[in-house]
């Protein structure tokens, strides 16, 4: 189960599978819900597993023939339980503590109360958990071999792509209802189809956090990619407020409109045609331009057939 959870997080592999006939058979778009369900299964079975061992150790400690006390059976390597220097008992205790920590910090009250970083950093405990599981059970490495290799290959590929180059935010429009409209410079090989989404990372807000957003611009739009981000959590609120603070509050909407038109006229003949911009109220109509704020993109196609030509990033 602990290795199968990794299979459900292979985003690039699942994206590839969505373009095959398996998308008609398997619920590939519900991998997150299935991942959560498997997490509950792991927690329940781990508690049953631990209780059974604790009862067994208690019965052994009460036996007159046992040379070990209860705490020695539970916390030390002296009884020689396990295949790596008798480390099954202490590694089991460490695994249970890490599992409870991850489970508690993954609850919706933590993730949706403005503490996403708590969820993110505690969820990185999967790496020491896998190491402890290899030491704890003699057969776990066989189950982890293929999913683990694919998982770390995806991590390496994602890290390499994200470091190939950052892309600039060309324009930012702050719309009513705390919606941030981002116009991001489109890479030349970044192809997508209607309904696709991407993972967005803004290092100035949170260097290690990636958040998915649906692409709101048409694929025929060559210069920029549009995202409309509604402020509903800690990260999206920080994104909105960072651009709101970067523009003077006394900027009038007329001055901002003229600035937008002048900015478009300076892009040259290859740029997008001039289009009316969304305008908000005087309190929410601030517009920020910044080429100092960079973003990094990774594209995922939720479903459909492979696109002809280059597959993009």
From TrEMBL:
Gene3D superfamilies found in the cross-reference section: Translation factors
Annotated InterPro entries: FAD-bd_8 (IPR013112), FAD-bd_FR_type (IPR017927), Fe3_Rdtase_TM_dom (IPR013130), RBOH/FRE (IPR050369), Riboflavin_synthase-like_b-brl (IPR017938)
Bias (Polar residues): 269-284
Listed GO MF terms: superoxide-generating NAD(P)H oxidase activity
Membrane topology: Multi-pass membrane protein
Record GO biological process: defense response; superoxide anion generation
PROSITE patterns registered for this protein in UniProt: FAD_FR (PS51384)
Domain FAD-binding FR-type, chain residue ranges per copy: 162-276
Protein name: NADPH oxidase 5
Species this protein is from: Neovison vison (American mink)
Taxonomic placement: Eukaryota, Metazoa, Chordata, Craniata, Vertebrata
């Amino acid at each position: 189960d602990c290795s199968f959870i990794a299979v459900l997080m292979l985003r690039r592999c699942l994206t590839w599978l969505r373009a095959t006939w398996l998308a008609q058979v398997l619920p590939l778009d519900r991998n997150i819900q299935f991942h959560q369900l498997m997490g509950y299964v792991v927690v329940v079975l781990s508690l049953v597993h631990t209780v059974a061992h604790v009862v067994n150790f208690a019965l052994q400690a009460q036996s007159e023939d046992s040379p070990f006390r209860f705490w020695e059976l539970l916390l030390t390597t002296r009884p020689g339980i396990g295949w790596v220097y008798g480390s099954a008992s202490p590694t089991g205790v460490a695994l249970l503590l890490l599992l409870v920590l991850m489970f508690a910090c993954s609850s919706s009250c933590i993730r949706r109360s403005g503490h996403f970083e708590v969820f993110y950093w505690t969820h990185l405990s999967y790496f020491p958990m896998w190491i402890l599981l290899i030491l704890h059970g003699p057969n776990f490495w066989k189950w982890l071999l293929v999913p683990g290799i694919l998982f770390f290959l995806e991590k390496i590929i994602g890290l390499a792509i994200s470091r190939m180059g950052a892309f600039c935010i060309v324009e930012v429009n702050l719309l009513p209802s705390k919606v941030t409209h981002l116009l991001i410079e489109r890479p030349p090989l970044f192809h997508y189809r209607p309904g696709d989404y991407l993972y967005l990372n803004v290092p100035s807000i949170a260097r290690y956090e990636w958040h998915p957003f649906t692409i709101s611009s048409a694929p025929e739009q060559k210069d920029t990619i549009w995202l409309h981000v509604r402020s509903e959590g800690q990260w999206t609120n920080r994104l909105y407020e960072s651009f709101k603070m970067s523009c003077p509050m006394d900027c009038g909407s007329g001055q901002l409109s003229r600035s937008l038109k002048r900015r478009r006229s300076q892009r040259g003949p290859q740029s997008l045609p001039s289009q009316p911009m969304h305008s908000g109220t005087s309190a929410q109509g601030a517009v920020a331009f910044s080429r100092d704020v960079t973003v990094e993109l990774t594209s995922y196609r939720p479903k459909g057939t492979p696109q002809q030509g280059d597959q993009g990033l």
